[in-house]
Amino acid sequence: MAQVQILLSTWNGEAWLAELLASLNRQSFADWELLVRDDGSQDQTLKIILEWQRAYPYHLAKFITDGEHLGSTQSFSKLVEQSTAPYLMFCDQDDIWFPEKVEFSLAALQKIENERGFCTPILVHTDMAVVDEAKQLAAISFWTMRSFDVEQSKQAYLLTNVVSGCASIFNRAAAERAFPVPYRAMQHDRWLALVCAWFGQVYALPQPLLFYRQHANNQVGAELQSIPSTEIASRVEAWSQQAEVFLQRYGDELTRADYRLVAALAGLQYLKGWERRRHILQHRLFKQGILANIALLLFA
């Protein structure tokens, strides 16, 4: 078994996969293997993966082709459940990894693990360089582009996610603590970051270690600086539902103050209009940034 397993969920990725796989082959750290789950592709994705497997059989540990379309969150959750390595990395089909990505990410995680212990859920995430469809540089720092405060508190993770799955590495303790992902969680990486922030550690490595490619088919992109006003109410519902399943799974382990905070967020889905706004103010359920919170109070 390899020390690091890279988890790749594919879906109609024929335009991007060759470059991604080539970037994995260039990794300076060699003790890794790939777990792939295809989410029901209708293009040449499966053929590309199988051809790569024939060329590099020692790197492809498992290829799941059940044909079911689950969406990225549940597809990645299935991959984590199938994994066995002590360290795991999410991988998006349209990105390009820098050669040092696995090596530097793993070194940072192991340093923290040596300090805090192997039973502590640990997540390390890095910055990313943003490129367009033609690989033209759009931003040297995704974090700067999005004005992220990556040193946020554990409470902030309830509403604001600064962790990108494709830029992350996490240990076995984190995998066992956070997965499988509940169906009402927002995304696999957001849920993982939330769990690690509350019960372990999230560490931000301030170095871009991949090209984060933006194109028309991105599920979650880099370009939007804030949530459109028309989507804020539905996003509040999603935050609230995720908080509710967080309480269901971990409520017995929370302090009284933390339980009240998470329960307050979970309760937002049952309030409307001024009652919802008053509840946000009363319990200080705020996001990063003044403008984001003004928009939250106007359109929640």
Automatic annotation (TrEMBL):
- Keyword check for Transferase, yes or no: yes
> What's the superkingdom here?
Bacteria
The UniProt keyword set, sorted, is: Transferase
Example GO molecular function? hexosyltransferase activity
Q: Which InterPro entries match?
A: Glyco_trans_2-like (IPR001173), Nucleotide-diphossugar_trans (IPR029044)
Provide the Glycosyltransferase 2-like domain boundaries.
6-177
The protein's matches in PANTHER family, at most eight in alphabetical order, are given as: GLYCOSYLTRANSFERASE, UDP-GLCNAC:BETAGAL BETA-1,3-N-ACETYLGLUCOSAMINYLTRANSFERASE-LIKE PROTEIN 1
Spell out the protein name for this chain. Answer: Glycosyl transferase family 2
The organism named in the record is Thiothrix eikelboomii
